[in-house]
Structures are given as structure tokens and as C-alpha cells.
TrEMBL record:
Domain of life: Bacteria
Alphabetical list of SUPFAM superfamilies matching this protein: DnaD domain-like
This protein's name: DnaD domain protein
Lineage per the UniProt record: Bacteria, Bacillati, Bacillota, Bacilli, Bacillales
Family: Belongs to the DnaB/DnaD family.
Matches recorded under Pfam families: DnaB_2
Domain DnaB/C C-terminal intervals: 52-123
Source organism of this protein record: Metasolibacillus meyeri
């Protein structure tokens, strides 16, 4: 190979690299623009806060399957992070820390056309007000039973 062919090859490679860099810059610019144009996506801090809340309530790190389920609630089922947090709170109050239970809560709210946490709170308050008097009215005081005290038994 002579010097001219080496220089020509070097120039050709530099042009290819230059064009590739320009194309990559354009792709990144388009990606950045697309990310800025997403209107319906929740702010990342709110979503990461929600995941942290799940981990805190569950007392452990979430598995990849659990992360996928939660992500599906946001992306496919179109629940807001506030609604998912509210469903988690309801599950904690009920003492049922499972994603299936939370999924059932979210599904129930969707069937009842609840779109905001305020609607859910009103419904929950009404439900608890109806429940409390009926539970108190049906409960009768237990009669006291005499228990055998083996500690005071005489030999």
C-alpha cells in the first residue's frame, strides 16, 4: 500500500465516524425531545417515592415480578401513583400485605369509576360509618367465667 491509499482510507474512515457521530447526536436529541413531550407520565420522584413506600410497608425489597406488577398498574391499567398509594394504605389498614389484594382494591375502584383519591376517601368514610354501628350493635358483652387458679391450689 502506498502513502496516498493509506491517507485516502484514513480520510474515508474519519468521514464515516463523523457522520455516525452526527446521526447519534440526532437520535439523542429526538429521544430527549420525546421524553420532554410525555405529558401523562407521572413525575419520576413520585413513582420512586411510591416504590419506596411499598418496600417500607412490605419490610423488604420488592422482587422483579412485584416491580412489574406495580409498573403495569401505572402503565397498562392507567392508575395514578396516588391511587396506588391509597390502595396500599387500605391494604395495610386491613392487614393484607399482598399485591393480589391491592390489585383487587384497584380493580374495585376502577369498576366504581373512582378517579381521584378524594372520591375513594369519601367512599371509604361512608363505608366505615355504615360498618361501625352495625358491629357495635350486634356485639353483646361476654359473661365473666370463673377460671381455676392453679397457683393458689393447696396441697
Amino acid at each position: 500500500m502506498n502513502m496516498q491509499s493509506v491517507d485516502a482510507e484514513k480520510q474515508r474512515i474519519q468521514q464515516i465516524v463523523y457522520r455516525a457521530k452526527q446521526e447519534i447526536a440526532q437520535v439523542f436529541a429526538r429521544l430527549e425531545q420525546d421524553l420532554c413531550n410525555i405529558d401523562n407520565a407521572a413525575p419520576q420522584t413520585e413513582v420512586s417515592e411510591m416504590y419506596a413506600m411499598f418496600e417500607q410497608e412490605f419490610g423488604r425489597l420488592l422482587s422483579p415480578l412485584e416491580l412489574t406488577n406495580i409498573s403495569n398498574w401505572l402503565d397498562e391499567d392507567h392508575h395514578s401513583p396516588e391511587m396506588v398509594k391509597a390502595a396500599l394504605r387500605e391494604a395495610v389498614i386491613a392487614g393484607k400485605l399482598s399485591l393480589r389484594y391491592i390489585d383487587a382494591i384497584l380493580l374495585n375502584w376502577k369498576k366504581q369509576n373512582f378517579a381521584t383519591v378524594k372520591q375513594v376517601a369519601q367512599h371509604t368514610e361512608q363505608f366505615r360509618q355504615r360498618k361501625l354501628p352495625s358491629v357495635a350493635a350486634t356485639r353483646e358483652p361476654r359473661p365473666k367465667k370463673m377460671m381455676y387458679n392453679w397457683l393458689e391450689e393447696k396441697e
